[in-house]
Design a protein that fits this description.
Blueprint (H helix, E strand, L loop, with lengths): L1 H43 L2 H9 L6 E4 L2 E4 L2 H5 L5 H33 L6 H35 L2 H7 L15 H30 L1
Antiparallel strand pairs: 1-2
Helix pairs in contact: 1-4, 4-5, 5-7
Protein name: DUF2975 domain-containing protein
InterPro entries: DUF2975
Keywords: Membrane, Transmembrane, Transmembrane helix
Length: 212
């Protein structure tokens, strides 16, 4: 009786996770379309159009970095410099980042669908898990570059470097685009290990089925 209840709870859990990841796929699909449209829009509009739009209205700007929120004063906003190249490249980098997350969600959803069909220790599942691990390892090498370029782009667009360097307590500003996010790298390594365990489990499952 207890085993039946455990199986039922497990199926409910997998179905719930499947619904959550389906919703995430829909949200990420909308984000991909949104940022794709933004790239096209940013490529077509002129710099004068954006500058005139900012000068003709009242805008506020704030940036949030890992819980640290920075609100820009009106003089900084008025010094906004629209650089089409920086904007398009920034949007393109964000689009690539979302695409990798989108691919990870697809792999996880396929993995959950396979479990719902009663296929757990299979070669396909082990490959899916390993691909998720490779995505995490790849992100660990580029996530710092993405975050640093985001800060760099904002500082260039709003000429924040001049404001910061004009302060007596800031000597200079530098950017480090290359680095490894070791937390994400370790997560990728752990996920890859789980994938290899599933691969070995699929081998044992095939041997067991062959003896029946």
């Amino acid at each position: 009786m207890e085993l039946v209840i455990e199986k039922k709870n497990f199926k409910v859990l997998i179905k719930g996770l499947n619904m959550i990841f389906t919703a995430l796929l829909i949200v990420l699909s909308c984000l991909l379309l949104f940022f794709g449209a933004l790239i096209v829009f940013a490529s077509l509009i002129s710099e004068n159009f954006v500058l005139n739009l900012i000068e003709g209205g009242k805008f506020s700007a704030s940036f949030n970095f890992s819980g640290f929120e920075l609100f820009l004063a009106e003089p900084a906003i008025k010094k906004f410099h629209y650089d089409k190249g920086i904007i398009v490249l920034l949007l393109f980098i964000v689009l690539i980042y979302i695409s990798i997350i989108f691919y990870i969600i697809i792999l996880v959803k396929k993995f959950l669908n396979s479990i719902m069909q009663g296929e757990i220790f299979t070669l396909s599942n082990s490959k899916r898990i390993e691909k998720v691990a490779y995505c995490f390892v790849s992100l660990s090498f580029v996530i710092n570059t993405i975050q640093t370029y985001l800060i760099y782009a904002l500082s260039q667009l709003f000429t924040l470097e001049q404001f910061m360097e004009s302060a007596n307590w800031i000597k200079s500003v530098s950017y480090h685009f290359f680095g490894v996010n070791w937390s994400m790298f370790l997560c990728g390594l752990i996920i890859w290990t789980i994938g290899r365990i599933f691969r070995y489990g699929s081998f044992l499952q095939e041997e067991f089925d062959a003896t029946l």
